[in-house]
Specification:
It holds the Pfam family Yippee-Mis18. Belongs to the yippee family. Keywords: Metal-binding, Zinc. InterPro entries: Yippee, Yippee/Mis18/Cereblon, Yippee_fam. Strands 3, 4, 5, 6, 7, 8 and 9 form a seven-stranded antiparallel β-sheet that branches. The protein has a four-stranded antiparallel β-sheet with strand order 2-1-10-11, with no helix packed on it. With 120 residues, it is mainly β. It contains no helices and eleven strands. The protein has one domain: Beta Complex (Metal Binding Protein, Guanine Nucleotide Exchange Factor, Chain A). The structure holds zinc ion. The site of zinc ion has 8 residues, from loops.
Length: 120
């Protein structure tokens, strides 16, 4: 399991369910605010569906389910085939549901989609 340093200088996303570390904030390239989706260059601690028969196709793009390694919760998908790559939408990138993630902002843990503090 990969772990980032939970220090003021290192900001990253965690699985909302089990708080496994998922991605550094600099890996987040773009946020689709309307759907609370984030496009990430890279992630850690994610299981990606390897069986092509279980991949999903939408708008000619093919995606593999991507889940938290620790708790198996589905967090989003990884793009496998993208015939019309754009600056953000490219093969190998992850599209994650920000509502299923938390954010360590250097001083506290926030909900990734609202940036309101998590009470605990
Ligand atoms: Zn998890």
């Amino acid at each position: 399991m990969d772990e980032f340093d939970q220090t003021p200088d290192v900001h990253f996303f965690l699985c909302r369910e089990c708080r496994t570390h998922i991605a550094l904030t600099q890996e987040l390239l773009f946020t689709v605010l309307e759907y609370d989706l984030g496009i990430f260059r890279n992630t850690v601690n994610m299981d990606v569906e390897g069986d092509p028969r279980r991949h999903r196709i939408f708008d000619m793009r093919t995606a593999a389910d991507a889940s938290c390694t620790q708790c198996s919760r589905l967090l989003g998908c990884k793009l496998v085939v993208v015939p019309d790559e754009t600056m953000f939408v490219q093969v190998g990138r992850f599209i994650l549901d920000l509502r299923r993630l938390l954010l360590w902002d250097g001083s506290q843990i926030l909900y990734a989609h609202t940036h309101s503090p998590v009470e605990d």
